[in-house]
Specification:
The chain is mainly alpha-helical. It is about 50% helix and about 0% strand.
Length: about 170
């Protein structure tokens, strides 16, 4: 205490302790974010389940195998690119076309979910890259997908690849 009986004044430049509320209140925004994220993940999971249920139903109801979204000649050409493939049965490109279509649909669906998470209505490369890195089934594409450095949704680059190496973006067939 000083001579007049008052407490010592606070030292200039030193902040007095401030109470920001209870520790539970400090964690509330984080918990709210976690809850919102969990709901969003659950909604995406339900949408994927509905997607695959619709795909299964559509496959069961298919009777016309003549119409395809993807050109069978192109699929056949890709299949013949493998030197071990000699002959291709007529139904094989049809099955491959449908499998490719379903693959593209699921990847697009997952990419769109990522775009919506970021409150965008335009699908971008980084959405596709994020969908690939988030889904274990798509791990075979990790080395093929172009990555953009310096963005918040960046896909980690391959181990050992230099930061600015443009060749780290491309798949090299051995």
């Amino acid at each position: 205490m000083d001579q007049q009986g008052h407490g010592t004044p606070p030292v200039m430049g030193v902040a007095a302790p401030v109470q920001y509320g209870t520790p539970a209140a400090a964690g509330a925004p984080y918990q709210a974010y976690q809850h919102m994220f969990a709901q969003q993940q659950q909604q995406q999971q339900q949408q994927l389940q509905m997607f695959w249920a619709d795909q299964y139903r559509e496959i069961e109801q298919t009777t016309d195998f003549k119409n395809h979204s993807l050109p069978l000649a192109r699929i056949k050409k890709i299949m013949k690119a493998d030197e071990d493939v000699r002959m291709i049965a007529a139904e094989a490109p049809v099955v491959f076309a449908r499998a490719c279509e379903m693959f593209i649909l699921e990847l697009t669906h997952r990419s769109w979910a990522h775009a919506e998470e970021n409150k965008r209505r335009t699908l971008q490369k980084n959405d596709i890259a994020a969908a690939i890195t988030r889904t274990d089934v798509f791990d075979f594409l990790v080395d093929i997908v172009p990555r953009e450095e310096g963005k918040e949704d960046v896909v980690p680059r391959a181990l050992g690849a230099p930061a600015g190496d443009p060749l780290s973006y491309y798949y090299v067939q051995q």
